[in-house]
Amino acid sequence: MRGIYGMQESDSGVKAAWPKVSHPYRILYPKPGLTRMDVLGYYAEVAPYLLRLAKGRAITVKRWPHGVDGTMFYQKHPPEGGPILVEDLPSLLTWVAQGALEFHAPLGHVDQPLQHDWAILDLDPNPPAGWESVMAVARVFRSLLDLLEIPFLLKTSGQRGLHFYIAIEPLDHREVMAIMGRLSEMICQTVPELATLERLKRDRGNRVYLDYLQNGYQRTTVLAYSLRATPNATISTPIRWEDLATPADGWTMERVRAHLGRHGNLFEWQGPRVDLEGVARRHGLRAQERRMPSDR
Question: What positions does the domain DNA ligase D polymerase occupy (predicted)?
């Protein structure tokens, strides 16, 4: 039986991991009325999935100790120094108890940060472009990936956008960014009225920005199942292709719990990792003459 905060009442492991919580009933999300204990309960539920993605990576936490209407703090290092590692339930819940609502991770591991084992493409609509535009661009990118025989996972950003994730054999971040940049160029050449690589928002127009620069080693991306500091407490949610009709801002805590109950964890890679360098070589995707932006 589920407890009031989403925990299994018989789960002694969760109870043992529960940190000391100051102001447990402080409302962190005023619109849905979610308290700190509600947020802790949610993270206890999704911990088995989120922790797999966080393991071995230097996490950036975004903290709102007084709720989403209060001041936000970025934090990349614990008080004792070094990177923030969130590798077990106690460490996850301790950060949440301290006001962390969002968890962001790089694409490389802490021991080899320049070698990425994920490649991503972030579809970010520039208003007034909306979710319809995101879906249209996503269909084009899926067609390209299908043509190249590249599988992918899909998740919402938890705000306005959509993330394609590709599990790859470890590869230098510069190579990953160059290849994803070339794929992004191909999309823009196919649907220039829908997609753009313009970095300045004022130059993007009513189009979807293809942010392949998120593959840089200094960048982080919100983890799957992380809450976002939005009015409705939306979540960066792994989805099936057939779920694409639901916009990113429609994935609330209630919907995500129901979706997990029906479909289980959808952010689990099946099969071998993609040899992205080999794919690029076979299909001539190395744009060597094009200068890629430096992330250093």
Answer: 35-267
Residue 295 contacts residue 199 (beta carbons within 8 Å):
no
DSSP state of 199: S
Residue 14 · residue 89 · CB < 8 Å: yes
Strand partners, 116: 108, 171
**Contact partners, residue 142, CB within 8 Å, separation at least 6:** 152, 241
Please say if the pLDDT value at position 292 is more than 60.
Answer: no
Question: The whole model's pTM is what?
Answer: 0.91
Measured CA to CA, the distance from residue 148 to residue 283 in angstroms comes to 8
- Cα dihedral 135, 268, 177, 117 in deg (nearest 10): 180
Q: CA neighbours within 13 Å on the CB side: how many for 263?
A: 16
Q: What is the pLDDT of residue 11?
A: 54
Q: Can you give the residue ranges of every domain in the chain?
A: 12-105, 114-218+270-283
- What separation in angstroms does the CA of 278 have from each of 94, 168, 171, 181, 274? 42, 11, 11, 16, 9
Cα separation, 204 vs 49, in Å, equals 35
Q: What is the pLDDT of residues 68-99, one digit of tens each?
A: 999 999 999 999 999 999 999 999 999 999 99
114-218+270-283: which CATH number, 3.40.30.10, 2.60.120.430, 3.90.920.10, 3.20.20.140? 3.90.920.10
The string of pLDDT tens digits covering residues 120-141 is 999 999 999 999 999 999 999 9
